[in-house]
Design brief:
The protein has helices spanning 8-42, 85-93, 109-112, 115-121, 139-151, 207-217, 239-245, 265-273, 281-284, and strands spanning 53-57, 65-69, 74-79, 98-99, 101-103, 123-124, 127-129, 155-157, 163-166, 169-175, 189-194, 197-201, 225-227, 249-252, 277-280, 287-292, 295-298. The protein is of the alpha/beta class and 299 residues long. It folds into two domains: 8-43; 53-298, Metallo-beta-lactamase, Chain A (4-Layer Sandwich), CATH 3.60.15.10.
């Protein structure tokens, strides 16, 4: 059967239809590509695919803030002053919108001054604090307690000698075992461990606490990394404590040109003499350490 030839008008209509279909396909491709770009721009950053965990020491000036990140959990340890709340919130949001555990080491402004803002901007599933009979009458602490109550966030008491498990992170608490009636010395001293690697967090605990911890937990203090106590003040980081922890890496969270003269040269020399590689947020900015196969290295 002979094929019928298309008329001129039919050919013209066919070309118009083909152009129309091509335009639709092109439009669909543009929409799809745009959606992919928006997805990759908005998605949260993950940890190093070859890492078991990352430990981020956030630069909050003369204060403390650190974040533990694994595939299973996100843990925030302190958050600096209220002035740095937005800095911490933005940093955390690169990785997650929710915090599984927020550890508030002790009620000083440079460690938890921005806690209320953190809790109002991020989903905080649980808070860990140390108990104390000391009266605390500061604006930031009252705001923190009010926010905890308003959001009905459960609070876990950090008890010396107990271990707490959050996903693939184990937290061993070493202090406070008693009320020192001093906010610095009531700091939570704890070791966070992931896949055999560990970081010791000390808040602002001073040498009397270090001595008590050594007496009670001498064989359990070894850690790969030490968050140096009290921003490198001579009130902390005694020779015996450093030898017991025996870290490969030390991180000092400290503000550039601070009026306290932190970190003290005596402490820097002590760390150097023990062969401990030391990083400082005033000089290095955010310090990111990566745990791979039980070993911690700087990212």
């Amino acid at each position: 059967m002979a094929k019928r030839k298309m008329t001129k008008n039919q050919r013209k209509a066919a070309r118009k239809l083909a152009k129309s279909r091509a335009g639709v396909i092109l439009l669909l491709l543009i929409v799809a590509v745009s959606a992919l770009v928006m997805y990759f721009e908005s998605r949260k950053d993950g940890i190093d695919p070859n890492a078991d965990a990352e430990f981020h020491f956030i630069d909050v000036g003369q204060g403390d803030s650190a974040m533990i990140i694994t595939d299973e959990v996100h843990i925030l340890v302190d958050c600096g002053t209220e002035e740095y709340a937005d800095t911490v919130i933005e940093y955390v949001k690169k990785y997650t919108d929710s915090i599984d555990l927020f550890v508030m080491s002790h009620p000083h402004d440079d460690h938890m001054g921005g806690a209320a803002e953190i809790m109002s901007s991020l989903e905080v599933k649980e808070v860990m604090m140390a108990d104390s009979e000391m009266e605390i009458d500061t604006k930031f602490y009252t705001k923190t307690l009010d926010m905890l109550e308003e959001l009905d966030i459960p609070v876990t008491e950090a008890i010396a000698g107990k271990s707490y498990v959050y996903g693939d992170v184990t937290i061993d608490v070493f202090s406070p075992a008693k009320d020192y009636f001093d906010h610095n010395n009531n700091s939570i001293v704890m070791k966070a461990s992931v896949d055999g690697a560990s970081v010791m967090f000390t808040g602002d605990a001073e040498t009397p606490v270090e001595s008590d911890v050594l007496e009670s937990f001498s064989g359990k203090l070894k850690a790969d990394v030490l968050k140096v106590g009290h921003h490198g003040s001579t009130t902390s980081s005694s020779q015996k404590f450093l030898e017991a922890v025996a870290p490969d890496i030390a991180v000092i969270s400290v503000g550039e040109g601070n009026t306290y003269g932190h970190p003290k040269e005596e402490i820097l020399e002590r760390l150097e003499n023990l062969g401990i590689r030391t990083y400082r947020t005033d000089k290095d900015g955010v310090v990111v350490l990566v745990c791979r196969d039980g070993k911690i290295v700087r990212k």
